[in-house]
Amino acid sequence: MTDILLKYMSEFTLMSEDEQRAISESLRIEEYKKGKYLLRQGELSSIKCYFVLEGCVRQFFIDESGKEVTSNFYTEEQAIPVINEKTQGDLAKYFLVCVENCIIVVGDVATENMMFNKYPQLEMMIRKMMEINIGEMQEQFGGFISSSPEERYKTVLRQRPHLIDRVPQHQLASYLGITPESLSRIKKRIKKSNY
């Protein structure tokens, strides 16, 4: 699992192998079972960040009508955005739950700051990774807003095909902003057209 982290350290920093090894050995890596909540809407939020090494984490919230709305899925090599200092002590606005058994790097601000002081290039690496992550999220969000449900599904097929078989269809439908029945109809149309 630490091979993924070492890959990023090699790609984004000039740290020595000894520094890379020391960092990877000091990271907190946790295993979570399918169904484990990392965060619950309405709980006091804390400052944590996550990096998925293996598995899938769903982000969702309960709207005013009591309906679950899926806003994202995080899979291998994706950072789950930090719940920042401004929101510490506020009530969390969404849930994070493991859709599969997961292996996740868990970080907190105190440890992160200590590591950044000891290894300044680590902060640069995290910043670059977050810039990439935010850029991808902005692109996806812009595309989703301006596209039809069928185009959204085709985008998932192109950009994140692994989600199709990994997450329950009702959650995928929610992520696409449609009903499960609409998703079934779209899948049938696409299958007939040999997309």
UniProtKB/TrEMBL annotation:
Superkingdom of origin organism: Bacteria
Keyword terms: Activator
Residues in Cyclic nucleotide-binding domain copies: 30-79
Pfam families for the chain: cNMP_binding
Entries under CDD domains matching the protein: CAP_ED
Signal peptide: none
Transmembrane stretches, start-end: none
Coiled coil, from the record: none
Protein name in the entry: CRP-like cAMP-binding protein
